[in-house]
From TrEMBL:
Its EC number is 7.1.1.2. Belongs to the complex I subunit 2 family. GO terms for molecular function: NADH dehydrogenase (ubiquinone) activity. It comes from Scytalopus speluncae. The gene is ND2. This is NADH-ubiquinone oxidoreductase chain 2. Core subunit of the mitochondrial membrane respiratory chain NADH dehydrogenase (Complex I) which catalyzes electron transfer from NADH through the respiratory chain, using ubiquinone as an electron acceptor. Essential for the catalytic activity and assembly of complex I. It is found in: Mitochondrion inner membrane. GO terms for biological process: mitochondrial electron transport, NADH to ubiquinone. Residues 280-333 form the NADH dehydrogenase subunit 2 C-terminal domain. Residues 13-276 form the NADH:quinone oxidoreductase/Mrp antiporter transmembrane domain. The chain crosses the membrane at residues 15-34, 46-66, 86-105, 142-160, 167-186, 192-209, 230-248, 268-290, 311-333. It catalyses: a ubiquinone + NADH + 5 H(+)(in) = a ubiquinol + NAD(+) + 4 H(+)(out).
Length: 336
């Protein structure tokens, strides 16, 4: 309830103090969820998350106070002072985990459970994204484009060498944030659409991984025996997150590249499209491991055979939408 309250306050507020209050409520609400397992790794993740978010909230409050000092305005959309704009970009980048402020996110996600990781990767990113969209006319285009390309590059490069699924999904989130940020100034509605589709695909993958108890590549190689249909559709959901046509994940990348081309930013569009190939490689590796019938080497993990045949209807609905939503793109065009 506190998470929903904090998100609602931040998204619906016009005053900087109310937005800051909502972000603080969110931070304080998620910390018990991260540390509830009482494992040292979880306590470390909760501490890292708290320190990072507290520093980002302080910067955001300082930014709004500086803007109010020089302009006399506490309205979120009236952010006009250059120093305040720079501080706000830094604060929101820390909260989201954009490069070069990404270091905390993979570690926190790895120390959390799958359900808490899902909240960190989706719901907790909504309020900072909303603040970015509200202040987008005042932000520096060069700085945002540079950070977006760096995030797409780092998310792809660092995801290549990971064996822990949660860390792979963390760097995937950083890469997708780069795609959202690069189009923010030119088409904010497209940023929101990309965020919604990312949340849809990530929720489907996290819930499927939680159902099959997959935590790393080794357990993924032997998980096909538990629920074979779910593992097969998980492979398609991973490829959709990678942005392969004709799956749902292709839609936001297609629209973003089209919009960048309209803005005469063809080199930027080419660069970020090529960088997405790095992410495609590790998604293909995950998809291959999800559907492999025998592990390539001896495994110490116990093999299960049809341990749980029941799959929650929410998982099947989310996976179906994350795979088959592309034919509905004309309807999405008209609503956005």
């Amino acid at each position: 309830m506190s998470l929903l309250l904090g998100t609602t306050i931040t998204v619906s507020s016009n005053h900087w103090m109310m937005a800051w209050t909502g972000l603080e409520i969110n931070t304080l609400a998620i910390i018990p969820l991260i540390s509830k397992s009482h494992h040292p790794r979880a306590i470390e993740a909760a501490t890292k998350y708290f320190l990072t978010q507290a520093a980002a909230s302080t910067l955001l409050l300082f930014s709004s106070m500086t803007n109010a000092w020089f302009t006399g305005q506490w309205d979120i959309t009236q952010l006009t002072h250059p120093t305040s704009c720079l501080l706000l970009t830094t604060a929101v980048s820390i909260k989201l985990g954009l490069t070069p402020f990404h270091f905390w996110f993979p570690e926190v996600l790895q120390g959390s459970s799958m359900t808490t990781g899902l909240l960190l990767a989706t719901l907790m990113k909504f309020p900072p994204t909303a603040l970015l969209i509200l202040t987008s006319p005042s932000l520096n285009p060069t700085l945002l484009t540079t950070m977006a390309i760096a995030s797409a590059a780092l998310g792809g490069w660092m995801g290549l060498k990971q064996t822990q699924i949660r860390k792979v999904l963390a760097f995937s989130s950083i890469s997708h944030l780069g795609w959202m940020t690069i189009i923010l100034l030119y088409n904010p509605k497209l940023t929101l659409l990309t965020f919604y589709l990312y949340c849809l695909m990530t929720s489907a993958i996290f819930l499927a991984l939680n159902t099959t108890k997959i935590t790393n590549l080794a357990t993924m190689m032997t998980a096909w025996t538990k629920i074979p249909p779910l593992t097969t559709t998980l492979m398609l959901a991973l490829l959709s997150l990678a942005g392969l046509p004709p799956l749902t994940g292709f839609l936001p990348k297609w629209l973003i590249i089209q919009e960048l081309t309209k803005q005469e930013m063809t080199p930027v569009a080419t660069t970020i499209a090529l960088l997405s190939l790095l992410g495609l490689f590790f998604y293909l590796r995950l998809a291959y491991c999800a559907t492999i019938t025998l592990p390539p080497n001896s495994s110490n993990h116990m093999k299960h055979w049809q341990t749980n045949k029941s799959v929650h209807i929410l998982i099947t609905t989310l996976i179906s939408l994350s795979i088959l939503l592309l034919p509905l793109s004309p309807m999405i065009f008209t609503t956005t």
